[in-house]
């Protein structure tokens, strides 16, 4: 028996530096390789959940618009099963992630939903359990349970696949500058893209092995306070992910002409001595990892080339929390 | 004893559809995988060679400009050794390959040099022997000994690594449209690019295996008169090659913003029912394989987007020959 109590959670999105790109279990959302991300401060989702015996169906509102509830209901079913309840729920979400930014709003969305729904259902989950639960909604959401740098260990089953925080080195004032290149809906979703790559890329098995090495190397760079190596590994890992897409059958790519232009600008800045590195996800937008001291130079150059309204800045953000 | 007789040869450049991208022997220029190309009619090199006992050094003129002779001398040493002569030679070359076109002038250059120099040295080489000899100058030159479609079998030593012609299907009026995107000298030469990829890409071994499959599949498509499959395999093979570059350490890419723009135009034309497929080599220029009947539509679209002076058209060209 549940009181119709409302819980509201806020979770921040994250940007992967060692990428998650391929599942070994589509249903449980177990990834092929472990990944590493940075949770971002300025981009988040707030979600309120109320389980109510009087409801005949789940309801889901996003940014005040009623939405198709099927994915949310599938997720709530997992929560209901854990809590041993039957009540339907109302879910109200507000995205403070610009939906055009290619900043994986599904990560913040399912992390916030996992926290709010589990509390509303009367569950008291520890963070690894919350992370596992969020993972069932969207893989990358398991990382948004934590702030700062986060590792998602691939694991081998539902129990062993969850995220945990990684110590941020002292004096590592990481920032991320997102350049919004396209607001078009992507033709090939992350889910479809990674599935095609797993099934058809001749390079896939070597991606998995290579990403394992990249993860070890990036953690070593973190332990050694080595931002340059940290950035280089991030950029190379992203390029290997995009190379997979080009090697799939049929091949595809998220890169647009302006993605290439922005990548070349970043390479040019490095030649001028600025430590900055790009990464791209399932879309054309270019995200630049840099140190706080270099943000204004990079923002200026991007603003001059693409317009200042296309340039967003974030830094390390907090863990998912109730509000 | 050689008379100072001059021989002049013309050889046409070629465009690889299954790419050569990596050597297993840097000195002999033995490739990691077999490749397949189309020799082009409008782009060629003419080279005259005269061995002359009175010369104290080799001389090399390209387009009426005296050049550093060291690479040519190294190649002539192979010819002199085969012919058992010591005379130095004069070499006059004219390139009818726009040097800005990224159309591998080294292929036509060394094919023409191999034919003219071997004749001038008194050798009567059959075509496989000429192909092996040209290969020592530049790998892809071994394919320019023949016209039309040509396979370079990788082989395993100097004797077994040479090219031979592949039957062009009836009614296969293949054309190639080259879009000149950049006239800048490339930062990473083919030689450096493929070397880095062989040494550092985690995907390299799978590229070799995948290209072997592509070669079998493209020859099947040729045997079945299937231009669509022929084009699709060509495009996917090119993308897998460019994916290798993105996966190298340090990563690199020959793609420019306009390369992506042109690739998207070709993809758009396919959605309109035009069978056209792109390929790119060690540079940003986009080459489109299509049938003769579709040339004018594609040329028009490229001319409108990039300027007609950037668009070159070629079709299947002849074997290297004396003139």
TrEMBL record, chains A, B:
EC number: 4.1.1.33
Record has Lyase as a keyword: yes
UniProt source species: Liquorilactobacillus cacaonum DSM 21116
Alphabetically ordered keywords of this record: ATP-binding, Lipid biosynthesis, Lipid metabolism, Lyase, Nucleotide-binding
InterPro entries reported in the protein's UniProt record: GHMP_kinase_C_sf, Mev_decarb, Mev_diP_decarb, MVD-like_N, Mvd1_C, Ribosomal_Su5_D2-typ_SF, Ribsml_uS5_D2-typ_fold_subgr
GO BP term (any one): isopentenyl diphosphate biosynthetic process, mevalonate pathway
Record's keyword annotation contains Thylakoid: no
UniProt name for this protein: diphosphomevalonate decarboxylase
Name of the top EC class for this enzyme: lyase
Pfam family, one: MDD_C
Taxonomy, superkingdom: Bacteria
Domain called Mvd1 C-terminal: residue spans: 177-310
């Amino acid at each position: 028996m549940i009181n119709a109590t409302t819980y509201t959670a806020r979770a921040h999105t994250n940007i992967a530096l060692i990428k998650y790109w391929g599942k070994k279990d589509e249903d449980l959302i177990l990834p092929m390789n472990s990944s590493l991300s940075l949770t971002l401060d300025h981009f988040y989702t707030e979600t309120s959940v109320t389980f109510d015996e009087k409801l005949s169906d789940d309801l889901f509102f996003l940014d005040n618009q009623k939405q198709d509830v099927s994915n949310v209901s599938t997720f709530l079913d997992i929560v209901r099963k854990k809590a041993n309840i039957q009540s339907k729920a109302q879910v109200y979400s507000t995205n403070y992630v610009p939906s055009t930014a290619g900043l994986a709003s599904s990560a913040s969305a399912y992390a916030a939903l996992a926290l709010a729904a589990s509390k509303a259902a009367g569950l008291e989950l520890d963070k690894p359990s919350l992370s596992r639960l969020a993972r069932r909604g969207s893989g990358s959401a398991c990382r948004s349970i934590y702030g700062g740098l986060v590792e998602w260990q691939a694991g081998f089953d539902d129990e062993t696949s969850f995220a945990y925080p990684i110590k941020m080195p002292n004096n590592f004032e990481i920032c991320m500058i997102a350049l919004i290149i396209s607001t078009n809906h992507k033709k090939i979703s992350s889910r479809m893209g990674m599935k095609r790559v797993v099934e058809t890329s001749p390079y896939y098995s070597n991606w998995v092995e290579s990403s394992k090495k990249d993860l070890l190397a990036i953690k070593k760079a973190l332990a050694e306070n080595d931002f340059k190596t940290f950035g280089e590994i991030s950029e190379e890992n992203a390029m290997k992910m995009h190379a997979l897409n080009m090697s799939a059958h049929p091949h595809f790519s998220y890169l647009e002409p302006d993605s290439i232009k922005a990548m070349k600008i970043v390479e040019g800045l490095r030649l001028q001595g600025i430590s900055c590195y790009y990464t791209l996800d399932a879309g054309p937008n270019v995200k630049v990892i840099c140190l706080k001291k270099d943000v204004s130079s990079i923002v200026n150059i991007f603003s001059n080339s693409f317009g200042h309204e296309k340039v967003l800045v974030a830094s390390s953000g907090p863990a998912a929390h109730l509000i």
